[in-house]
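Schema walkthrough. Field components (list of strings):
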Amino acid sequence: MKPSQTLVAGLLSALLLLTFLLSWHLATMPKAADQVVSDEYALLVGGAAAKGQESAFPTPAQFGDKLVEAISDPFYDNGPNDKGIGIQLGYSIWRVLVGFAAAVIVAIPLGFMIGMSPLMTKALDPFIQVLKPISPLAWMPLALFTLKDSNVSAVFVIFICSIWPMLLNTTLGVSSVRKDWLDVAKTLELNPFRKAIFVILPAAGPTIMTGIRISIGIAWLVIVAAEMLVGGTGIGYFVWNEWNNLSISNILVAVLAIGIVGMILDSLVARVQKHITYKD
Amino acid sequence: MSFLKVEKLKKIYPVRTGGQVTVFEDVDFNIEKGEFICIVGHSGCGKTTILNVLAGLETQTAGHVFMDGREISGPSLDRGVVFQTHALMPWLTVKGNVAFAVRSRYPNWTAAKINEHAMRFIDMVNLTGSEEKRPSELSGGMKQRVGIARAFAIDPKMLLLDEPFGALDALTRGSIQDELLTIVQDTGQTVFMITHDVDEAIFLADKVILMSNGPMAMIAEIVVNTLPRNRRRATLHHEPHYYPIRNHLVDFLVNRASDITNGIQERPVEPLFVSPGLSASALTTST
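Field assembly_structure (string):
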């Protein structure tokens, strides 16, 4: 029997991971100290320099230790500058969800209104086209100035950057509902509400979901940068704080965690998307 | 007074290059209750526009359409439409599609009653057992059957079919035509149908409206189908009236459809009724 493609792909993935870990290990191996460090200098600067040429970049084993440490106690809280990675991720996820939910609440009804009216589409298009490419971080000072609260500002930045893909996709989905279905709605004398809920929404559903999926991805990308700026809590702040501590291991743990949470968020939306998508 | 009255119907479309084109004008015809009318003509003669005006989906430039003595001014649940492209909602099951129409017609009905009503019409088009399937899982013929069930399920006073079997293969088309004829005869439904298929028109229609070519199309003739109403596909071509009617229709489409447009034939003041089948029986009795 031929092995299934999934199995082969899994083995290949494992092989790639191993190769990566091995090259990482080789690259970070402490080199033989061929450069002489004077004893006095070692005394002066302390342990770090005396260790010779060991890289500041952790070996896979050191990283593994940190990872185990982070996972085994993710929720500890020793004051503002020392919180477990779980707590920090929790703050970030919470901000993303609040900002993202607010964006959904605004973007989908607004997109519906714009999409139903070609006039509104034309009238609002220049605004959308100008606002859309603005980097979320450019909003940050304005948000801080007007909202006065760093936490609210971070949520606002998530809101403002995740609204565009949803707004545009909702508009597109709603305005391109097939004429046949609208004709059916007319011949069945549907009132505007029933038409919107039972014909336009399901017809535009897959396009709207694509927008939502793009948005949640962007929101998660942006939160890290936003939290580096606003500080205090969150995984973005954690990364910046560990940079100041020069703890590359912790940064790596955070980077991995960011990737995994992003993947989970995306797959959750993808699961909903699968239910909404129809085959024609 | 006739059940459906079409008076001096005219449609003008703007042309993209400027100006306008009269697709058809002076279209007059009546449909009696329980009649099956087919309209035949070349592309561009405005058949679909006429059907859309009857459905209330398009507005005419001039003229009037009355159904049951009241002017048609928009879409209505009184007229069920079967669309050329079936227009099923792909996110609903077969039963969901039919039930959606039933719920629109009878908003006060309970779910159980809607379900039962929908199932009756799904059964009528022989789709029982497929009611939980989605349109994407159905063949073209089955999709069109769902479209027919949906149109019948709202108990319309009149059924409008826009070339519903055009995309189907000959065998499927034949069996759906059989089903449609049986259902229409059982329910006494009034039907207006567009077709390109002469045999389909002869098999189904009581009268066949022949449109001259567009632009400025109009009704050239109304052919009365004198074949017995309990006609059957298997024996249809043995009926003495069959070939004279068929030849007349084909002759019209091939040779005479452009006569009015080209001025060879005068524009008829009122629709000309012809019964080619009767002349045939006169012929057969004389020999």
